[in-house]
Amino acid sequence: MAGPCLLLAALAFSQVAPKRVTQPRRDRYAGLHYPKDPRQFRGWRHHGDSIPVWDVHPALPKDVFTFARLRYPYRRGLRWQADYPEAELHLSWRLHQLTSMQVNPYPVIVDLKVEQLREHPFLFISEPSNMNLSDEQARVLGDYMRNGGFILIDDFWGGDEWRIFEPTLKRIWPHSDPVELQHDHSLFHCVFDLKEPPQVHSNVYWSHIRKGTPNTTSNEIRPDAAVPIFRALYDTRGRMIMLICLNNDLGDGWEQEAFDPDYFREVSEKHAFPLGINIVFYALTH
Hints:
With about 290 residues, this protein is an alpha/beta fold.
């Protein structure tokens, strides 16, 4: 279990369930403004302005965990934005609410620029099969990890998307291959003791399964997407520098906690937030 610096608060998830049910709506991805406070974002299916702002310790105003999302060059769809901004707003709020960590209430978007990356030791990348990096940009990400940064890769499914991402991964980190984590790895037990490696499905997939209606989430119903796979990259000192969550959508589990009370209880509360908190704790302490 984690030390006292990250013990869970007495307040249980069941006591802080979302106050409302919000139905998602479709919207366009282009032409959007990304304000400094993601609560002010005005785009698709957005309800993050209900997340409170909290104070950080005045003596250490910069000694906080900040959720940083990478804005990467893409092949199609601007999918670096997947689950923005609720995913980072909700995870940051739960970290602040349920742990003793100092957490920045303002998540950030960072570009592939050294001066931005060096400010953020934790970096989130969504839907990596859409990444379209130059050799120089791949080198910048590799240097970021070599110099102490940690990258969380989330939200892609099946062998096809892995095969698309794998050459990019090799260009980012040509020094070693990823290692598949087994359930006894301490990442799955360091704060929450997870009984099995979690799989977080999107709210759309979950809703179709629950209602028995035809499933439109083609990526999540592939036969080779049925089992969650966690792969990690390590540097020469044995430090985990990247965690790849294949056949998982943690971002949706964070983003859509208010989609439906049952989705919150069965997906967000049981799987998405516990694993997210474990990952943050592990990355910051190893």
